[in-house]
Each structure stands twice: as structure tokens, then as C-alpha cells.
Amino acid sequence: MVIPDSYVHKGLRLKLTEELRSKSISNEEVLKAISSVPRHLFLDSSFVNLAYKDQAFPIGAGQTISQPYTVAFQTQLLNVNKHEKVLEVGTGSGYQCAILLEMGANVFTIERHHSLFLKAQRILFQLNYKPHFFYGDGYEGIPAYAPFDKILVTAGASSIPEKLLQQLRIGGKLVMPVGTLECQKMTLVEKMSENEYQNSEHGSFIFVPLLKGKNS
Length: 216
What we know:
Elements: H1 7-22, H2 28-36, E1 57-60, E2 63-65, H3 68-78, E3 85-89, H4 95-102, E4 106-111, H5 114-126, E5 132-135, E6 148-153, H6 162-166, E7 168-179, E8 184-193, E9 196-205
Parallel strand pairs: 3-4, 3-6, 4-5, 6-7
Antiparallel strand pairs: 1-2, 7-8, 8-9
Helix pairs in contact: 1-2, 2-4
């Protein structure tokens, strides 16, 4: 199936990229990925005309597709390199996953909402992206494929799940919004040794909550 992506869309992506550059996104690989991935294809039809605004939009199941700045900020903070094994907790629309794949990462992505899991699979496969998909509880991670070089969590919680920290390799990085339902601090965790972590905070954001279990 051929999915439409016009010169108009490509032009809007370039404009969005320059907007993100003006907002302190400086990683050229991140910006290149933003300019390459057709965000409008990850949105419900009623929002397609707004796809390249720097805004979040609902995607169903009480979830959202994050605004492009947030996607770029998290990805830049994670400092993804080609061929790294990355665990994404919360596939959602699949857009963040596509950005990671566009940057050359080997992505393992887990989603607890079955409807979003199926929809993201369909869109990403149609775009010829091939992550490793898992339907399950993000709190549990994917221990069978650990350790991961990088872990990106796209939902907020009051603390970082211990099982995710255990699945991060020594020298690896985890990025996750941590705080209350009303506001979270974007937190970078660097694993220094098996039991030693270095945490730093990088601004305030609002994410949907990270929930336990699976939702059919």
C-alpha cells in the first residue's frame, strides 16, 4: 500500500525542523529524523491538517501523540547512536518509534493498549519500519532482550520502575518524565555500575500516566 506524502508535507516538516532548532534542539540527527518522518500519517484524520504544528493531539485510548518538541527533546537527551538497542516504553501512535528507527536504532517497543499496538504496527510496517513489537506491561520492560543501551519512557510516573533500571546496561541511559500527574521533570538516568545511578533533571513536562498491566 502506497501512503501519500506530498511535497507540501515535506515543506511543512522542514519548517517544523527550523522551529525546533530555534527552540534549542541542536542534534542534527534528531532534526534530520523529524524532517524525514511523515507525522501526519500517525494522526487521526481530523487532525491531519495540523500535523506539523508543535502540538500534542489525542490518538485514542486516552493517549496522545507528543508535540514534536517533546519528542525531539527526549530523543536528544537520550543521545541515540546507530545500531544501539533501545527500549521504548509506550509505543502510542508509533511516531516516536519511527524517529528512533530513522536514526538507526534497533528498537524494542512495548504498548499496553491493544488497539494502539495494532494501529502502530500497521502504520510502521506500511512505512517500511521494522521495530520489535511487544504487547504488554511497560513497568515490566522486556527482560528477555535486556540489557538495553538506551531506554525511553513516553509516560510519566512518580518514580522510575526498578525493573527498567535493571534492564539498562552499565554505561546506558534512561530518559523518563518523573513527578506528579500535573507536572513531571524530564529525568536522565545514567547507569554507572550495577547499583549506582546518576540522575539529572531537564525541565518540566506533562505526560499521560504510565499505567500497570495490559488493556485490551
